[in-house]
Automatic annotation (TrEMBL):
Ranges annotated as biased composition (Basic and acidic residues): 1-18
SUPFAM superfamilies: Phosphoenolpyruvate/pyruvate domain (SSF51621)
Segments of this protein annotated with the region Disordered: 1-26
Name the UniProt record assigns to this protein: PEP-utilising enzyme C-terminal domain-containing protein
Matches recorded under InterPro entries: Pyrv/PenolPyrv_kinase-like_dom, Pyrv_kinase-like_dom_sf
Length: 352
């Protein structure tokens, strides 16, 4: 698969976690960009500086084996999007997670989607799907023009209703990819520097993920050409109950993994955190046995509430909604500061 080839064919390529190395402060850029976070926390973590220039599409989600990966608190969803880029070319610390089904919530798109799902006439359904495509392309263009468009991880459209109708699911995902890549191509021709990575939603096995990856690659190559398609990172959005063996196998060919607590939020608030942290630890252990340098993140409310446990087990970071991100940033700041103090004390004790 392309994912394995990209990691093996170029021994000189330096693998880095998002854009940080061991000497960087873990969430400095995220902290400095969040005006709502207490200044006391920012003192510890705000010395990271945004980098400017053309987007480097060769950046990977991996890290060098043996490095402590930076723990990132990233945005989940469009709720706090800045609609204009303040400084073109400034790299964010990591991607913003955009769930494709969010685009179906726009009033006009939601109406079209409902009509399309209930339509039994194939020709009429095709016409409705074409109109949905134009709405999705407008949503993709809005994303690319916003601050989140500098680097976004977009999950393919997925709902339980669509999962029960595989043909409709495939058709809508195809329309979404066409719309996204067409908008990306238009932006690129106008001098844009956006980076869009893709997430295959909820594969339960290596075979399922491989099929989804091949589908994404085929659409990307047909729309954008080989060079851009080869640079596109493709990850897997995993449900917490994914089998450990399956998670390990998927990690072999996925560029990154996101464990999605929103997939099974059976318990509200912090009641969901303990079970999610346990599931994350099991999945992470299975992935690390197969691929020690893999980047594994978490998303959803349970991930935000379980942040301390996820930090301890060595997860790469969490995606948080606007409502939970400030608290998550503060928790991450405290954990990072405590870890630094412990390391400082240990180093000082070694010289006594």
């Amino acid at each position: 698969m392309k994912g394995e080839r990209q990691q093996k064919d170029d021994p000189n390529k330096e693998e880095r976690p998002f854009k940080y190395n061991t000497g960087d402060r873990t969430i400095g850029i995220e902290m400095s960009q969040s005006a709502s976070v207490a200044s006391a926390a920012a003192e510890f973590l705000a010395d990271g500086e945004p980098r400017k220039g053309k987007v480097n599409r060769e950046r990977t989600y991996s890290r060098r084996p043996g490095e402590r990966q930076a723990f990132l608190v990233l945005r989940d969803g469009t709720g706090e999007r800045s609609h204009q880029r303040e400084e073109p070319g400034v790299y964010p610390a990591g991607p913003c997670l955009i769930r494709g089904e969010e685009w179906l919530l726009a009033p006009e798109t939601a109406t079209l989607y409902s009509s399309w799902m209930s339509c039994s006439d194939e020709e009429q359904a095709e016409r409705i799907l074409q109109r949905i495509y134009h709405r999705l392309r407008a949503a993709a263009a809005d994303l690319l023009e916003s601050a989140d468009g500098v680097w976004a991880a977009v999950a393919l459209l997925y709902t339980p209703e669509l999962a029960a109708r595989p043909a409709r699911l495939a058709a809508l995902q195809d329309a979404q990819l066409d719309a996204l890549f067409a908008a990306a191509l238009h932006s690129q021709r106008l001098g844009g520097d956006s980076r869009i990575d893709l997430l295959a939603p909820y594969p339960a096995s290596l075979e399922e993920f491989a099929a989804q990856r091949e589908f994404i690659e085929a659409v990307a190559e047909q729309t954008l050409g080989h060079a851009y398609a080869a640079a596109c990172r493709i990850g897997a959005l995993l449900a917490p109950d994914v089998g450990q063996a399956a998670a390990g196998e998927i990690a072999r060919i996925a560029d990154f993994l996101v464990l999605d607590g929103a997939a099974e939020e059976a318990a509200p608030g912090e009641n969901a955190a303990e079970g999610f942290a346990t599931a994350a630890a099991e999945v992470l252990a299975a992935v690390r046995r197969v691929r020690p340098a893999a980047a594994v993140l978490a998303a959803g409310a349970p991930a935000a509430y379980a942040l301390a446990d996820l930090y301890e087990i060595g997860l790469s970071g969490v995606f948080c909604s606007a409502a939970l991100r400030t608290e998550a940033l503060l928790r991450a700041a405290c954990l990072t500061w405590i870890a630094r103090q412990d390391n400082t004390d240990a180093a000082a004790g070694g010289w006594q």
